[in-house]
Amino acid sequence: MANNDSPEPATSSSAYSLSIPRINIRRTSSDTQLDKVQIKSASVYNIHGLSGSQHSLSVPPIHKDVPGYRGSNEFILTDDKQSTMDQIKAIGPWFRRKCKNVCRRKILYKRVPVLNWLPKYNMDDAVGDLVAGITVGLTVIPQALAYSSIAGLPAAYGLYGSFVGCFVYILLGSCKDVPMGPTAIASLLTFQACDGVWQRAVLLCFLTGLIELLMGLFGLGFLIDFVSGPVSSGFTSAVSLIILSSQVKDLLGIVAKGNTFIEQWSSIIDDIHNTQVGDALMGFICIVVLLLMRLLPRIKVGPPDACDQSVVQKIINKSLWLIGTARNAIIVVVCGGIGAAFYENGKQPFRMIGEVPSGLPSVQAPPFSVPEMKDANGTIIQEYESFGDLLQGLGSMLIVIPLIALLENIAICKAFADGKPVDATQELIAIGVSNIANSFVQGYPGTGALSRGAVNNASGVRTPFGGLYTGLLVILALLFFTPYFFYIPRAALAAIIIAAVIFMIEVRVVKPMWRSKKTDLIPGIATFIACLALPLEYGILVGIGLNILFILYHAARPKIHMDQAVTPCGVKYLMLTPDRCLIFPSVDYVRNLINKHGLKSQIPVVIDCTHIYGADFTAAQVIDTLIKDFKSRNQLLLFLNLKPSVGNVFEGADLEYRVFYDFEQLDKAIRECRRKSIPA
C-alpha cells in the first residue's frame, strides 16, 4: 500500500493525504458520481458529492522552481471498490440502459443512414445517381461474368450476387461511393474455400454475412486495425498476381488448376503446348485495347477549365470519358459479336462461357448441405456433405473473408470520405446484411470494389440511391440478355480481369516505405511471399503475426530517460522516466535497467510514472522485487506522479512503496531519508 507517512489530513507533509480513511483516487471524464476537482492555487480542496457529503483533499503548493505538476491533475474521489456481488447486480441496470439507448432516435438514424439523406433528396441528387448507377451497371455486368470464373463458378452466379446487395446497401450503407457486388479478391477467396461447388459458395455467402453482421453489432470493426498498411499491400499484391495467373489458362485456351501461385504456374507450364492461337490472339489484343481505352478519360479537348470549353468540346470530352469508363462493356459486346459471327453449328472459334440460365434466380434459403451427385454411368462425381462437413471445409475462411471484405469496403470509404469519419461498425452491418440477402438469391460473398467505387465517384454519384439503378440494370441483363452471353469468349473476360488487377500490384508503396521506415517492409514482403506460396488465409496470418511480434517487442523494450537532479538543499538523486506502461513482457527489462542505474550511481532513485498509464499483476510482482532490491542495499526508491489506476494494481498486490505528486514533498522526503541514512 502507498505510504502517506502522516495521520493528519490538512497539515501532513506526505505526498498526498485525505480527510477520510480508505478512499480511492481515480481519473475519469464522467461527472455522474462526483464533481471534478479543478486544481487551483489553494492547499486544501473541499469535494462535494452529489449526496451532499463533504470531504477534503490536501494538495501541497507547487514548488517555486517547478512550473506545474508533471502528471495528470484531473482526479475525483470515489468510494471503495464495489464487491463482486455488487458488480453482478449492476449488470441488469447496465443492460437495461443499453437496450434503452438502442431505441433512441439518434441511434436509429445512425444505424439506418437512409433516414438522414432521403428527406433531403432532390432532383440534382436523382440525376447524379441515375447517371452514376447506369455507368456502374455497365461496369459491374462484365466484371460479374469475369469474377465468377475466378470463383470457379458458372457465369450466372456473378450476376446473382450483383443486385440484391445494391438494394440493401441503399438502406444501411453510410458511403455513397460503395457499389456492392463481387470483387476479384473475394472471388479468389471463394474459390480457395469452395473449390467451385456452388452450394458451398452460397452457404459461405450466408455465413460470411452473418459473421459480418455480428461483428458490426458487437462493435468489432476495430479488428481491421490489426492489419497494417504493409501487410495489406503485401496481401493485395500477392492476390493480384494469383488472380492474374488464374486467368492465363483462359487467355491461352488451355486447362490448368491450382490454388496457390506456384501450383497454378506449374499446371500452366505443363499444358502450355496446347495453347489455342485464336484465344491467345483475342486475349492479348483485348488487353492492349483495354489499357489504351483506360487513358481516354485523361484526354481533354480544349481549355483545361470546363467553363471555358465550347459545347462541342464538352461533348467530346464527355464521350471520351464515357467510352473509357465503359470499356469493359464495350469489349464484351464487341467480342461477343465476333464470337456469334464465327459460331457455326456448334463449332466454337474461341472458348466461350457457355449457357447462362435466363431469368432471375429463385428466392430460397441457402443450402446447408451438398447432395450426392452421379454421372450417367453411376459414378459419384460429388459426395454428400453435411452442414458440419461444410463448416469444417470452410474453416478459417469464415474469419478471413469478412475481414478482407471490410478492408476493401473501408478503403473505398476512406478514399472518397473528404475528411469525414468512417463508421466501420455501420459498414460491417451493411455488407453483412447485403451478403445474407445475396445468399437467398444464390450469390456468393461480395463487398465494395474499389475500381467500381472510383467509377461511381467520377460519375457524380450523390447518394447510395445510385445502387438502385445498378441493380435494375443487372436484373434487365438477367431477364433479356442472358442468351447472348453464351457467345462471349473466355479470353475476353480474362483480358478484362488482367487489365484491372495489374494496377492492384502495389509496387509504388515500396519506395516511400523504404524511406519512411525500413522495418515495415519485413511484414509486407513476408505477407507477399507467404500468400504466393501458401493458402491465402495462412499468408495473411503470417503478416499479422509478424506485426504483432513487432508490437510486442516494442512494448517489451521501453525507453527510460535518465536525469541527475539536485534538491534545493544539495542532495543528488536520479530521476528515471519510463516512456510507456508496465506490462509483463517489459517489467524484467525495466527492473534490470533501474537496478543497473541504481547500482552505478548509489544515490536515491525516483521513478517518474507520468507516462506509465497501465500495469498488470506481473508488473506489480516485479516492482515488489525491485523495491526489495533497493531496500537490501539501503538505497532510497520513490515514485512520482503514479496514476491512481496503477496504484490500485500495486495496492492489490500489497506493495510497500511511497508515492509523491509534489516536488517540495519529494525533496523533503529525500532530505529526511538521506539524513537518517535508512531506506524508505
Structure description:
By secondary structure, the protein is α/β, with parallel strands linked by helices. Helix content is 54%, strand content 8%.
Chain-averaged pLDDT: 81
Low-confidence stretches: 4-80
Helix run count: 27
The major sheet is characterized as:
6 strands, mixed
Question: How would you classify the helix and strand content by structural class?
Answer: alpha/beta
Going across the biggest sheet, name each strand in turn.
1-15-14-13-12-11
Strand content: 5-15%
* Total domain units: 3
User: How many β-strand runs?
Assistant: 15
- Give the N-terminus to C-terminus distance in angstroms: 13 Å
Rg from C-alpha positions? 33 Å
Assign a percent range to the helix content: 40-55%
Q: Rough shape?
A: elongated
